[in-house]
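Budget justification note: compute hours in this period were largely spent on complex prediction jobs such as the one shown. Inputs:
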Amino acid sequence: MKLTGLDDTIVALATALGEAGIHIIRLSGPQSKEILDRCFEPYNSLRWLNNESHTLHLGWFGLGDQRLDQVLVGRMHAPHSYTGEDVFEINCHGGAWVAQSIIESCLREGARLAEPGEFTKRAFLNGKLDLVQAEAVIDLISARTRAAAHQALTQLSGRLSEEILALRDDILEILAFIEASIDFPEDDVESLDWTALKGRLEDALRLAGELLLGSKSGRIVREGLTTVIVGRPNVGKSSLLNALLQEERALVTDVPGTTRDEIREFVSLGGILLQLIDTAGIRESADPVEQMGIRRSWEALERADLILLMVDAGMPLNFDEREVLRLYGERVLVLLNKIDLHPQSAVRSTEVPGVCIPFSVVRHEGFDALEAELRRLVFNEHLDSARPLLSNVRQIAALEGSAVSLKNALSALEARYPWDILSIDVRRALQEVSEITGHNVQESLLEVIFSRFCIGK
Amino acid sequence: MEYLAGKYGVIVVGAGHAGCEAALAAARMGCETLLLTLNLDTVAHMPCNPSVGGPAKGHLVREIDALGGQMGITADETSLQARMLNTGKGPAVHALRIQSDKRAYHQNMLHVLLNQANLTVAQGCVESLCVENSRVKGVLARGGARFESESVVLTSGTYLTGRIIIGSSAFAGGPNGQMPVPLLSESLRALGIELGRFKTGTPPRIQKNSVDFSKFIIQPGDDRAWHFSFLPTKSMFWLDDTSKQEPCWLGYTTSETHEIIRANLFRAPLFTGEIVGIGPRYCPSIEDKVVRFAQREAHQIFLEPEGWQSEEYYVAGLSTSMPEEVQIEILRSISGLEKVNMLRPGYAIEYDYVKPHQLSLCLEMRGLNGLFTAGQLNGTSGYEEAAAQGLIAGINAALRVLDREPFVLRRSDGYLGVLVDDLVTKGIEEPYRLLTSRAEHRLLLRQDNADLRLTARGRAIGLVDEPRWIRYEKKTRDLEGVRRLWKETSLSPLREDVQLALSRVASHPLRSGIKVEELMKRPEISLREIAVLFPELEQVDSEVLEEALIDIKYEGYIEKQKIEVERFAKLEDRAIPAQLDYDRVRGLSTEGRQRLKEREPVNLGQASRITGVTPADISVLMVFLEQRHRGGGGRVSG
Ligand SMILES: Cc1cc2nc3c(=O)[nH]c(=O)nc-3n(C[C@H](O)[C@H](O)[C@H](O)COP(=O)(O)OP(=O)(O)OC[C@H]3O[C@@H](n4cnc5c(N)ncnc54)[C@H](O)[C@@H]3O)c2cc1C
Ligand SMILES: Nc1nc2c(ncn2[C@@H]2O[C@H](COP(=O)(O)OP(=O)(O)O)[C@@H](O)[C@H]2O)c(=O)[nH]1
Ligand SMILES: [Mg+2]
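Corresponding output:
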């Protein structure tokens, strides 16, 4: 069982996931100020440095090129806060992806994900809630725990659980080798030499890395598929976005290049949540503001789960479009727009490796096909067949923790630390994945040692 | 006819490794103590390996010694050879193992017992406990003698309803040809104590002059004279002349051995259903190994002398309960043992044990005040595990008599704490052996610092005498001095002796001044390079230098573990009141509630380690306790 500290710093999303608008991330505990000092850049740093409780601060979350989003941070110092500890609330408007990234940064800086009902529990333990409320706190803890347990079970099915179990088995075996040689030094047990151990740790780390990559697409189910609409100017991207949103949000004009900023919106299409990002279009431009937008388009493509490449049915594919297809082929759906004007497409189907949907925004044609295609992609896991879904923030945090520990073990190995030291990192890595799989580390370790090695003199 | 035979503060039943430590501790703490045992000739007998220590076990012996126990001293004084194991695997897992002379060990311990103030030793067989109103009042021995006391420590080992199995012959018996104890089990059951049944086994013994040792690989002792005790001790046999140590011998089973075993499996009690008790996975019999690891062509065996220039050797690795004639065949199939004479056959033994989850962390039976149990009776195996529990039980039995606070070590204090907590909190399903991997703060619980961790604790309960205390104080002072010296001294790149020392181990030459401490963090730098630079440290004990070096080299990891210990302590510090009615705690999971009722943990940390208790249960419990603490109601703040 994971021992959770009583006064470590916890973080969690305070608003429900997956909705548009504002997300609030709450941090509580003694380290929360330190954590924010390391990842929040207030516009008015003097005011921030005043350390005054109950103040609001506008600034950037993420320093330098790690900048994530413009956020509003509210600070409430112990004991005058909800939990009675130092509490910081980060309001961001960049959508679920940003909220998640902010949480991940906090975790990296030393916070821990809050257990179900933990903020309220702390509030109660610190005398912030009266006795009458204690019962409600208990209900909250047990209800949320039941919900989380249900979720954890259903999410860990099929191929994903296989891969995580494989990772856990790998780490378990590494640890078993180390521990067997330590606890049974005179038994004739197989052992790993330095190079073999290094190889195994690297393999495990690689597997963890792959799973983490997969986890990005795993958020789809709960937080939406990060979807980028790209295409050259005037092809009809903003029109599509508006049609999907059924409201005039992005500017629709005839002047190329008017969409300069990313716009993020959530729409649900065929039961799948899309986090839409409209971009400035891919195009060479002399206008510096335009250029920034264009650079962002390419960045958005890198992190997108799904790319809707909109091409004009009346024009042959240009270099950029072919580039997108070449680089991100597996994640691209091509929308052949304006077929109302050009029933005879200028784009040959052989030029498009994947799916190509004839489309007309103005006539509202192709939406059904798009929906069907999306469903096929997500539910059949065709989206990225090499990577299963890992969708739970807690699981991702555990996996990340495991990867970090494996890295630490590798550096300890490089620095020629002995096995008793290495075992500390390897065991932590195992503990972290076991959080996901729900295995008891000590019991499974002995199980493997005794079944795999012939112990006993 | 029942008669009152004597009144004591503490009565210890059984003079095995557990009983000896228990009796000595209680007597040394000033309690009038009686040690009753079946046979004075088998006091501190080793029914299995003639050796003490190894990973985790050696750690335990050091801790027992630091607290003023006896095992370390007796093992040192009767040592045939000593080896430090795991030296290449890091300081936390260095582990001392000593081969001891079995008979000398027994005699040494008996001598210590018989010369201990406040301690009476007597032969006798305890058949039942005297209990009144859930309080122990004493014991009743065969023949009618009733002994009264405030505390009783039961350490009857593998004797309870013992049953020996060799091939198809099975009979009631204790280990090593001793009598079994049939009645005590019933007396315990009648008191509502839950018993289980385990089995263990031992290999045959052989005659030295029928062995061709040229076919074996010699396993000598180390060329440094190692000791368990932090007090000055010496082997009565080799003094400190390491070249005089007795060697052990390494050999291998052959494919013929395995064929013999396979051909006779139908007669192996382990596979015929004759044995029902659960055996230890870490001590399988040879038939078990051959079946489970069928692809292996050879298994190691070690020949270990049972004593100094002994005619009898122990065959480690060949534990078996096969019929005697098969055992002889097996032995003779091994190269070098073609003509061997088997002196005693191997056997399996089944016995009753007390399920340890019924105990408190003081090893006292919950709901039966004054009854303590320790050793193999609690389902462990191993001399060291037994001695460790004996010490803890003996201390607490005495503290109860003295009306003082109980003595409980935490998992972060030592392997003693890990052992007791594992037994009591987690419970066991197979014979329990301590392993270093069971300790979560392993890097802090090293065998080299057992005295630093525990001597003061032993002093506080009155077990650490003046000589031991003086040595401890000197060590801590010296250590402080060395640490300060290394922390504060800088080495200049102009010092040729420094650069020379570095070049010898291919370490980067210094370009600028560097603190000694920093330099020592380089992996290639050992004590040797540093020691030559500080002639003033020549007076200081090498153990002190090694200690200081470990602290510097592994500082980062050590600090991290210390932080973990602090975190761990926070839950450990939250007491759960005795007799808490878990039915009144809303929101617990069904399984969690049941386990908590059954185990009655004394703090939240212990509760969190019980299988079936979830983190949410702990949260719920925490809120409940706070609610209770605040009492009836009323707004506090908000
Ligand atoms: C056959 C065998 C094989 C073993 N193999 C291994 C092994 O491979 N590895 C390992 O680690 N450990 C092994 N052990 C275990 C190890 O020997 C024990 O764990 C250890 O000796 C237990 O110590 P103890 O003090 O609890 O009990 P014991 O050493 O058994 O002492 C019990 C004492 O209690 C006395 N006694 C019992 N009943 C009464 C009574 N009613 N009244 C008075 N006195 C009583 C007995 O005379 C004896 O002195 C083995 C033990 C046996 C018997
Ligand atoms: N005929 C036709 N015109 C379209 C279609 N989709 C968009 N347009 C028009 O194309 C122009 C540019 O559209 P816009 O959405 O701003 O393109 P963007 O630059 O890609 O965002 C607008 O005048 C739209 O009305 C379509 O399917 N058919
Ligand atoms: Mg546009």
